[in-house]
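Take one protein record:
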Amino acid sequence: MAKRQVFFSFHYKADAWRAAQVRNIGVVEGNNPVSDNDWEEIVRGGDSVIKRWIEEQMRYRSCVVVLIGAHTAGREWINYEIKRGWELGKGVVGIHIHNLKDKDGKQTTKGKNPFDYVTVQIPLRDYWHGTRFVKRWLSDLVKAYDPPYLDSPRVYDYIRNNLANWVKEAIDIRNQY
């Protein structure tokens, strides 16, 4: 079976090292990482350039995997990536990565659920009234997994053993709406 193509969303400055560990697990294919210099150039181009870059990176991806660190929730571009992925019909799933160690061997605190900060319109079908759209918090629809271990190697193994299934489940959930 071919590996799923996913878009990884994460807070770059705080979690790039932890995110790289997940990206390198090898059970899914992720978007190519952007260097600090490339990202600075993208940001200098303004919102339209950032949105175009995100759009290109999401093309041909079936799921947005949000790697949740201490400060991921509520960030403007994380929210945009989550919402845009949902609008494009992609699965959306979150994974808490606070217990993976960074390059200095440190863990961090658990971050809030970023899906508590994003609303989406979902169709509500009714025989008498047809289809209408209602606003829902994305946290009511998608899952955010928190590996049940404190030591980094066990957290890594837990993510590695479950990531492909979480992605598949996220796509299945999205296909219900």
